[in-house]
């Protein structure tokens, strides 16, 4: 299924320019760092 790019941006609450600094900080607080745990 193909979704129009405008709909993708709307669903992700972003734009083709990316996230604002405030938006990035907000998502970092909500979701945490985009980081995988290392195996020991």
Automatic annotation (TrEMBL):
One protein family per Pfam: Cation_ATPase_N
Stored SUPFAM superfamilies: Calcium ATPase, transmembrane domain M (SSF81665)
Highest taxon of source: Eukaryota
Organism annotation: Nymphaea colorata
Cation-transporting P-type ATPase N-terminal domain residues: 2-40
Protein's name according to its UniProt entry: Cation-transporting P-type ATPase N-terminal domain-containing protein
